[in-house]
């Protein structure tokens, strides 16, 4: 099958709420549209009335939604599992492919729509849900077991599964076993490199009150939550700064540990050295990263680590703890350093040593920055969209 495809993309959350999943969903929809395919986004309506899409943007069918309960962050809208105009619009769209971005409410809507119109269901597994079990408290163990069983059943109802990282793709393929379907592929989320290149450098030193041209800034971007190992980042930077008084740490993001991080910034070892920005737009966050010297990363729950690709596309070398998705993005010794995580107790010291090593070797850091910029083409959205479309066509041909 060749030519234009009609793709209905179902999302559990969407812009303006910012996360790796909403960014990936938007990139998929825009990339397919730019490649000449027809796209209908079926996503939860935000709290504020959204603008009408421009003629060159993907069409949107807004699902009735509500604010998710804690621990869902503010602005995280969840679709209501009710009959709606959006679902009728999705059926009338008569998609060739139905692509789910979540296995939950919107994923079940996607599966029902796919069966109704006779289209294959493709699913992108964006999140390692088992790494969020701690939010269930005493129900973490049984909740994790139920989640694993549910996910496997959902996977087996799909025609194809996309994992943003090779490790996760291998785990899913092993779990579903040797079957004719689902097809399982590792396809990372692509980046609009032209847009990133066009962003001006921000002014992190001015915003934080640091000395322009003197202070050496390490940045990190992400949700400030336990699973992102914010405590490890802060401990590592504090140890790195002991022997490098010009080091500064820019922590971009918000979340349940934001107040902890702000409190940490008032302690003697980090006072004047740590600046927590709070929630920022994606463009502003990337413009700030562009003006920094290094990017630090310690998350233990990634499928791809999209912020790693964004940092490298900004020309900023990465120092990252070993973890899922890291080696898919960072070329160790070329555009960054990957530090062993185990044993966990030694992780802050290892991360600190790597930060100091690059901060003390500007020639090596500059070489890595150049390699990061020159190698960013591998993250191009057009390339990734081509891989997704190839999987769509393979899925349709195998029916």
Describe the protein.
- There is one protein chain.
- The mean pLDDT is 93.
- The chain has helices spanning 20-34, 85-92, 105-117, 140-156, 166-176, 193-198, 204-208, 230-243, 258-264, 282-290, 306-313, 326-329, 347-359, 362-374, 381-397; strands at 6-10, 38-44, 59-63, 65-67, 77-79, 97-100, 121-124, 160-163, 183-186, 216-221, 247-252, 274-276, 294-297, 318-321, 336-339.
- 40% of the residues lie in helices and 17% in strands.
- The radius of gyration is 21 Å and the shape is globular.
Topology:
Layout: E1 6-10, H1 20-34, E2 38-44, E3 59-63, E4 65-67, E5 77-79, H2 85-92, E6 97-100, H3 105-117, E7 121-124, H4 140-156, E8 160-163, H5 166-176, E9 183-186, H6 193-198, H7 204-208, E10 216-221, H8 230-243, E11 247-252, H9 258-264, E12 274-276, H10 282-290, E13 294-297, H11 306-313, E14 318-321, H12 326-329, E15 336-339, H13 347-359, H14 362-374, H15 381-397
Parallel strand pairs: 1-2, 1-6, 2-3, 6-7, 7-8, 8-9, 10-11, 10-13, 11-12, 13-14, 14-15
Antiparallel strand pairs: 4-5
Helicity level: 40-55%
Strand element count:
15
Q: Report the principal-axis shape.
A: globular
In DSSP terms, counting alpha (H) and pi (I) runs of 4 or more, how many helices? 15
What order do the strands of the largest sheet run in, or round the barrel if closed?
3-2-1-6-7-8-9
**Which CATH class of the largest domain?**
Alpha Beta
Tally of separate domains:
2
In angstroms, what separates the terminal alpha carbons?
Answer: 12 Å
Structural class: alpha/beta
Question: What is the fourth-level CATH superfamily of the largest domain?
Answer: Glycogen Phosphorylase B
Radius of gyration in whole Å, from Cα?
21 Å
Instruction: Give the helices and strands as they follow along the chain.
Output: EHEEEEHEHEHEHEHHEHEHEHEHEHEHHH
Strand share of the residues?
15-25%
Q: Characterize the biggest β-sheet.
A: 7 strands, parallel
Mean pLDDT: 93
Task: Give me the CATH architecture of the largest domain, please.
Answer: 3-Layer(aba) Sandwich
* CATH fold naming of the largest domain: Rossmann fold
| Contiguous runs where pLDDT drops below 50 for at least 5 residues | none
